[in-house]
Design brief:
A hairpin with a 4-residue loop joins β11 and β12. This protein folds into three domains: about 230 residues, DD-peptidase/beta-lactamase superfamily (Beta-lactamase); about 100 residues, D-Ala-D-Ala carboxypeptidase C, peptidase S13 (D-tyrosyl-trna(Tyr) Deacylase, Chain: A), CATH 3.50.80; about 80 residues, no CATH class. The protein has twelve helices and 21 strands. By secondary structure, the protein is of the alpha/beta class.
């Protein structure tokens, strides 16, 4: 072969090689085809964030069930419509007068909630501590609870199984204690046949434990069944089954069936602990305008909104999502409602010039009432990437592949461990398994959305396929 021919051959070889690796679209298409992911029900879009170009688009316009990927929309809308510095406020008012020397509130003590999602057991304790530090020792009237910042609807669209006591289906109210759930601690007895010890956290007046669970020998498998049911007086925790002698103590989380009543019950339990006497009752009514005009004696301020977006993203908190959703609604139209939240976020989507019409009914992605395309999700992520005011907080709130959150158990053996920042979305009953987020490679940053509805043989198959899609894309881009 002559020198000229050799040079020409080498140039053609390089050209063909570049052409072969410069088409991630074709590579992903071939991967999907090889695994029979060729029908409708899967959408894949990957974009280059540096120049906002689409590198992969497979069924990207098909409107699909996003499941908890919808939380990416709720989080971005919360950052922009509420603001990165937004804090939730719970106002403490006196309807009467307060003698701080004697510690006596002559009248009612009123708590006006504005949707704080962060009233954990620890934060409830802190609120009561602060009341004690203000000198409150006795309330001659009632404890008035005002949760009218939201409407009275506590179960959102898409939450169809209202009989479930699962913790991820909580009731939503502007005054919510401990995420409207209760942690049920179970500990085996010392002897075979002795009762399982059951405690609840936090302590809540009106939440009662009924247990017939027994301790069994270490050779037997535990079979605890823990549920909650609604009663006229509150919530009953029902514990049945058995627990092995050698089992470690464990918490099981379940929803409570009342909202403001649960908040009041938790406060009463802490009043008893802190020796604050309430002579009246816990009542549910708005704080009057005249009382509000006199000013709060104390404002209990939440952690910043970014804290709750992190909980919503990393641990897929439905509670945080819906509290943010209704808070967005209440900013200019009290009480906040799911319908108004959908209107506000849809208008925000349009104003941001994001593609298509947003089909949103709730903030968490529950049920079959929301629809998003992979192209819409990728466009949202690209939009967020350009927002320097909150993008770092948004990015850090996402789960890290193989490291934490809902991606902790995934990508463990993948070269993409620690490289993906993502949000999962799973509804097993509807055969939905999605993943969307950012792929942060050495040679560039990318947004991706992989929406799987009714495809594959099951959730694990879709997990594997999502991982392989991102690995195939990464391999192609590394060869450029």
């Amino acid at each position: 072969m002559s020198r000229c021919a050799a040079v020409l051959f080498f140039c053609l070889f390089l050209l063909n090689a570049v052409y072969a690796v410069a088409d991630p679209q074709k590579a992903v298409e071939q991967l999907l085809s090889s695994q029979n992911y060729t029908s409708k029900g899967i959408g894949v879009v990957i974009t280059d964030l540096q120049n906002d170009s689409v590198l992969v688009n497979i069924n990207g316009e098909e409107m699909l069930n996003p499941a908890s990927v919808m939380k990416l929309v709720t989080g971005a809308a919360a950052f922009e419509l509420l603001g990165s510095d937004y804090h939730f406020n719970t106002g403490v008012y006196i309807d009467g007068n307060f003698d701080s020397d004697s510690g006596i509130v002559n009248g009612n003590l009123c708590l006006k909630g504005e949707g704080d999602p962060g009233f954990s057991a620890e934060r409830l304790w802190l609120l009561v501590q602060h009341l004690g530090h203000l000198g409150v020792k006795k309330i001659t009237g009632n404890l008035v609870l005002d949760d009218f910042f939201f409407d009275s609807v506590t179960v959102g669209p898409g939450y169809e199984d209202e009989g479930s006591s699962r913790a991820y289906d909580p009731l939503i109210s502007a005054l919510s204690a401990s995420f409207n759930t209760v942690a049920i601690h179970n500990r085996s007895g010392k002897k075979i046949g002795s009762p399982v010890h059951v405690d609840i956290f936090p302590k809540i007046e009106g939440v009662n434990v009924i247990s017939n669970a027994k301790t069994v020998s270490s050779g037997k498998k535990s079979s605890l069944d823990v549920q909650t049911i609604s009663t006229e007086k509150g919530t009953n925790v029902i514990v049945r089954g058995s627990m092995s002698l050698t089992d470690n103590p464990k918490y099981i989380y379940r929803k409570v069936w009342q909202t403001w009543e649960t908040f009041g019950g938790a406060i009463l339990a802490l009043f008893e602990e802190y020796k604050i006497k309430l002579e009246g009752q816990v009542v549910h009514e708005p704080v009057s305008d005249s009382v509000i005009t006199n000013g709060a004696i104390y404002n209990f301020v939440s952690e910043p909104v970014s804290k709750f977006i992190a909980n919503m993203f990393k641990y897929s908190s439905n509670f945080a999502a819906e509290m943010l959703f209704k808070t967005i609604a209440a900013q200019d139209s009290i009480p906040g409602s799911w319908d108004r939240g959908a209107e506000k976020i849809s208008s925000w989507w349009e104003n941001c010039k994001l593609p298509g019409k947003l089909q949103i009914r709730n903030g968490a992605g529950m049920g079959n009432v929301n629809k998003l395309s992979a192209a819409q999700v990728a466009a949202l992520l690209s939009h967020v990437w350009s927002k320097k005011s909150y993008m770092p907080e948004y990015l850090s709130s996402l789960s890290v592949s193989g490291i934490d959150g809902t991606l902790k158990a995934r990508f463990k053996r993948s070269p993409l461990k620690g490289v993906v920042r993502g949000k999962t979305g799973t509804l097993n009953s509807l055969r939905v398994s999605n993943l969307a987020g950012y792929l942060l490679l050495e040679n560039g940053d990318y947004a991706f959305a992989i929406i799987c509805n009714g495809v594959g043989k099951g959730q694990y198959d879709n997990w594997v396929m999502q991982e392989r899609i991102l690995e195939k894309f990464t391999s192609e881009m590394n060869e450029r």
